[in-house]
Amino acid sequence: MRILVVNCGSSSIKYKLFDMAGERVLAGGLLERLGQKRARMHHAAGGRRFDRPQAAGDHAAGLRLILDVLADPQLGVIERIDQIDGVGHRVVHGGERISRSTLIDAEVLEVVEANAALSPLHNPANLAGITAAMEALPGTPQVAVFDTAFFATLPEVAFRYAVPEQWYRSHHVRRYGFHGTSHRCVTQRAAELLAKPLEQVNLITVHLGNGCSATAVAGGKAIDHSMGLTPLEGLMMGTRSGDLDPAVAFYMARQAGMSVEQLDRALNHDSGLLGVSGVSNDMRDVQAAAADGNPQAAMALEMFAYRVAKYVGAYYAILPGCDAVVLTGGIGENAAPVRADICRRLANLGVRLDEGRNQATVAGKAGPITADGARPPVWVVPTDEELVIARDTRKIVLRSA
Fold this sequence. Notes:
The protein is of the alpha/beta class. Helix content is 39%, strand content 19%. It has 15 helices and 14 strands. It has helices spanning 59-70, 106-114, 123-136, 156-159, 165-171, 180-193, 247-256, 260-269, 272-277, 283-291, 295-318, 329-334, 336-345, 355-360, 385-400; strands spanning 2-9, 12-19, 24-32, 40-45, 48-53, 86-91, 102-103, 142-146, 203-208, 212-218, 221-225, 324-328, 367-368, 378-380. An eight-stranded mixed beta sheet has the order 5-4-3-2-1-6-8-7. A six-stranded mixed beta sheet has the order 11-10-9-12-14-13, sandwiched between helices. Helix 10 (283-291) packs across helix 11 (295-318) and helix 11 (295-318) crosses helix 13. The radius of gyration is 21 Å and the shape is globular. The two termini are 13 Å apart. 45% of the residues are buried.
């Protein structure tokens, strides 16, 4: 069975084509800057790669280009696009109505559209990708895999905010959670690595990339999460502020005359590592600047690790036990100095870093980075969201056949 995984951003489409017989990636790539003059396609298949300008005005045109490349006589990995047995779509927000991966029908499309106000940067793009795939592959099952689904198990005490009841009842103001597919992936993988049944594993999973989030997992299920109504809450991120006093927005509106749109832009796109360092939202650039003596970059690194450690400590307090702290994502899997700083800040919990293990753990490699006997141990576990989406899609396609 061949499954195409599609992840649409506002101006991009990431994709991977899997052969599920061996869970092999046949091809994958990124079409970026849709609708812009500098649009490009990055594609890899069977050891061959290309990177070229590729005009595409919208998601529909972009998806057609991707399908054309996948079935191209010279570059392709399939003969015809009807050899694709299912398409799995990453969808960010399913609200309270959808709590699992599901076959896409009119009701699912309505849910994705209805939650666009809660995820204005993601759900409209996800919907555009779904619509484009349904038009290009009309006889092929389409499956939605929701980021919010893993957090359907949050208890009300964790997902409710201390705001007027009517805000929740009428406007659905609550914690939803994001990066759910990644947290689910590493939870399942960590249970395997720790040789524990999923329903018995207790973890603190920490996804660290341009977006960052932490999840408390008890008995294999999420019971708390750092992101909230939107992905802005929680940890310090590449360009997002994370937690701050809500009155900061009111203060800046009064003092600096900032509009709602300007505040939204500042907190989502101009804050985090970028805002504090003044250098970049990329951890590698911030580390390099700090090494060159930039004090703002050094402060950004300290704040980043401090906030991760603070969330880990909070979740350690509410869990019935902690089998491991799990780090994943681009920073979690690659930035050994950041991991070391986080571990040092958790020494009072019993975390003891093994510097050799930490330096030896690189991208794609899973393993502990703490000393034997450390409690809790800290593990690095690579995430593979696309494979999780492909697996869910395969199950649902087989079930619906």
